[in-house]
Design a protein that fits this description.
About 75% of the residues lie in helices and about 5% in strands. By secondary structure, the chain is mainly alpha-helical.
């Protein structure tokens, strides 16, 4: 007869397994950050080659294959992270993990018909409520901790005085940093302006496109660089998206917590008849002769197998209730505010850099 485990021994085993799972989740998350950096570097090189008319070269194909390998590995790791997270007790999850889990459960709930699957709907709703309750507990505990460490008015006054002294001492250093940041930002903007001019065929069209992309970046969680690269990819594939269509793309991506770049890649794959990546966005496809049956949020639509028809259908999903306005909702959260602040600062540094551009050109040896 096997040994009977005590309650303390059971708790110890569970605690050890939880710690190991969290360590693996952290390891996979850090690995995905490195992979994403490598994937973006290759995609940036691909965009530059496209702008130079070298899309059909072996170098471009090698970069595309490498980027796809990184993308697939990221997807595999993400599945493993989701698998490990789903096995953790709600009390073992961090606030970031709880937020992500709540978003996933809400998406499942939105895609589950209560009348057709009442048990599944009730189970998902109960789990979502449990996650939200745990998030509330953590927020309450956080407020209590803040009260314990509340600073007095005199202490704050001393901190302000110290901050003023520090800023005064470091002012010259900061001005140098601002100058370098302005140079780097202006160089980045100039690259995108040149790429848009080459892609669209005229400076006027490029200026118009850049203004549109800057406005979209300002009103969305995505950065200007991400929108510009995505726009160029679409143009190079014969798709000239309107502002409304780009917003649809952003809403579809934000609805599932994905980047616009990943949806654009999935969209372009779908047009080419490869529908695997569309599954990341809850879109399944079944080919039948000259048509494809797409299913999204429980609704199936038959679409002709033409580039125009597939593009029109996939972009139209951004107009659906529950999808439309997803970026606006995200912009009211910390991540969106952070992105908006970043775009605002980039715009400011670009303006400064544009004013200093003649100086940069004369003294380029100082920046290399």
């Amino acid at each position: 007869m096997g040994k009977h485990l005590s309650e303390d021994e059971i708790k110890y085993i569970i605690s050890a397994e939880t710690a190991e799972a969290q360590q693996n989740i952290h390891k996979l998350t850090q690995e995905n950050k490195s992979l994403a950096k490598e994937e973006r570097a290759r995609k940036n090189q691909m965009v530059e080659l496209e702008a130079q008319g070298k899309k059909n070269t072996q170098e471009y194909k090698n970069l595309a294959a490498s980027a796809k390998e990184y993308s697939n590995k990221i997807s595999q790791n993400q599945k493993e992270i989701s698998k490990l997270t789903s096995k953790l007790d709600v009390n073992a999850l961090s606030m970031a993990q709880l937020k992500k889990r709540a978003k996933e459960l809400q998406s499942q709930l939105d895609n589950t018909a209560k009348a057709i699957n009442p048990k599944e709907y009730a189970k998902t709703a109960a789990e979502l409520e449990k996650v939200k309750s745990r998030m509330g507990d953590l927020r309450t505990n956080g407020k209590e901790v803040n009260k314990e460490f509340d600073l007095s008015a005199s202490m704050l006054s001393k901190l302000k005085a110290a901050a003023v002294a520090f800023i005064s001492v470091k002012l010259v250093e900061y001005l140098g940093v601002i100058g370098m940041k302005s140079y780097e930002t202006r160089k980045e903007f100039s690259k995108y302006e040149a790429m848009l001019t080459h892609t669209l065929g005229s400076q006027e069209k490029a200026n118009t496109a850049m203004k549109m992309l800057q406005q979209i970046a300002k009103d969305s969680p995505g950065a200007l660089s991400e929108w510009t690269e995505g726009f160029i990819k679409l143009i190079n594939r014969g798709i000239n998206p309107t502002k409304g269509q780009l917003i649809n793309i952003g809403d579809i991506a934000s609805n599932l917590g994905k980047s616009t770049d990943r949806f654009i890649e999935a969209l372009l794959d779908g047009i080419a008849g490869e529908n695997e990546r569309l599954k990341e966005f809850g879109i399944t496809a079944k080919k039948s002769g000259d048509t494809t049956q797409y299913t999204f949020k429980g609704v199936t639509t038959e679409v002709q197998n033409t580039d125009a028809a597939i593009t029109k259908y996939l972009l139209s999903l951004g107009n659906l209730e529950g999808v439309q306005g997803s970026m606006a909702v995200q912009m009211n959260k910390l991540e969106g505010m952070e992105s908006n602040f970043g775009d605002t600062m980039d715009g400011l540094f670009n303006k400064i850099g544009k004013r200093l551009e003649p100086f940069f050109q004369k003294c380029s040896f100082l920046f290399f």
